[in-house]
Backbone:
């Protein structure tokens, strides 16, 4: 959000502080918009080199088991870990930013199941929930340093504020694995996450802009301003829309609120009569956007969501023209696998960039699991884990 997170966006929405942004002109719904100037100015978070690197990774061939994307790596650079080798079974400790949204809840269930699958090698697994609070997570990490952990996994709540706590863990001699969101230090043995926000934003924007009618009007729905992973998603979408000369009539913030999302869409339909494309920086309110068109008796235009099952189901049922870029929750398996490899003294990738698959019309049916709840994330990579599907219900 999720670094973040989601898909991810739900990953970061409740956990990262929003930064101040310039206020654009008022919109029909009364929320910030860039309708007066198309896509507006590029985000201060945009870094051209990072954008180009992420887009290149979209086409990179992964190394690792073909049927286990959580063990794959894109263009890996391996680092030695022999100095951390020790006899097992091990005590693994996990400092978690939060469990405050469905993406993180699905991910943690997947991590717990991976721990269970490795129970012969893990004697104890300690999880501490920071509840989305930086100071609590700092205290949690400091406390874990005295708990006899063999390795520490960290999903930081925010980047800069958690950096000193992670550095303190490294200085204590612990092998540290960071995932989902990063920190401003190179001391962890590895940083694990999928391709990232630029890749997510680009995939959705390319799809929508290529399938909406020429000269049509596009509405961009965002969660919050100033959150890095959401800003990079929008930055990449902006590049695609500007290149395709898409008429972006509004850039609106929904706050992740379904009711607000419906009102925004309805306001734009009333103002313009039709909207020909919808791009979203997160999928949590994608169903609400679809329902707004349906309630108004208007055709749902090309749209992107995420791999949350409620969106995949309405996509199938309504025959939408849609795509779902993902920030896969299977990444929650990888830190446990990485920690065990490090404690075995095996080399690991750093950074460990995971594949970031996209759900399309062609593979949609593969992810429509009828046994799991609407807020489940299909890209969990969990079907082979203990307790499936019961654990995720």
Residues:
């Amino acid at each position: 959000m999720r670094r973040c997170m989601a898909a991810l966006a739900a990953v970061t929405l409740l956990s990262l502080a929003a930064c101040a942004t310039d206020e654009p002109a008022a919109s029909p719904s009364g929320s910030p918009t860039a309708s007066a100037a198309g896509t507006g100015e590029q985000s201060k978070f945009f870094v051209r080199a990072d954008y180009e690197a992420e887009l290149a990774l979209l086409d990179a061939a992964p190394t690792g088991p073909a049927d286990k994307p959580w063990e794959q790596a894109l263009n890996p650079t391996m680092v030695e870990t022999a100095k951390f080798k020790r006899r097992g079974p091990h005590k693994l400790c996990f400092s978690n930013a939060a469990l405050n949204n469905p993406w993180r809840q699905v991910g943690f269930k997947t991590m717990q199941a991976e721990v269970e699958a490795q129970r012969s090698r893990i004697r104890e697994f300690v999880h501490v929930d920071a509840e989305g609070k930086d100071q609590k997570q700092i205290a949690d990490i400091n406390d874990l340093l005295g708990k006899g952990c063999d390795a520490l996994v960290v999903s930081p709540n925010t980047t800069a504020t958690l950096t000193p706590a992670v550095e303190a863990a490294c200085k204590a001699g612990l092998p540290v694995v960071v995932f989902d969101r990063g920190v401003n230090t190179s001391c962890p043995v590895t940083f694990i996450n999928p391709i990232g926000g630029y890749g997510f934003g680009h995939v959705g924007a390319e799809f929508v802009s290529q399938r909406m009618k020429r000269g049509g009007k596009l509405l961009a729905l965002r969660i919050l301003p100033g959150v890095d992973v959401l800003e990079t998603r929008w930055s990449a979408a902006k590049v695609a829309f500007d290149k395709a000369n898409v008429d972006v009539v509004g850039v609106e913030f929904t706050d992740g609120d379904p009711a607000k999302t419906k009102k925004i869409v309805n306001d734009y339909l009333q103002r313009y009569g039709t909207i020909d494309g919808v791009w979203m920086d997160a999928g949590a309110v994608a169903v609400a956007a679809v329902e707004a068109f349906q309630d108004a008796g208007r055709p749902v235009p090309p749209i992107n969501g995420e791999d949350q099952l409620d969106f995949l189901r309405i996509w199938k049922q309504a025959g939408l023209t849609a795509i779902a870029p993902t920030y896969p929750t299977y990444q929650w398996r990888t830190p446990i696998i990485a920690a065990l490899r490090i404690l075995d003294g095996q080399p690991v990738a750093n950074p460990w960039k995971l594949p970031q698959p996209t759900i399309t019309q062609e593979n949609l049916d593969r992810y429509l699991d009828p046994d799991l709840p609407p807020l489940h994330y299909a890209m969990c990579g969990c079907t082979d884990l203990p307790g499936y599907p019961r654990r995720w219900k």
Observations:
- The first strand starts at residue 78 and ends at 79.
- DSSP finds eleven helices and 14 strands in the chain.
- The two ends are 23 Å apart (CA to CA).
- The longest helix spans residues 102-117.
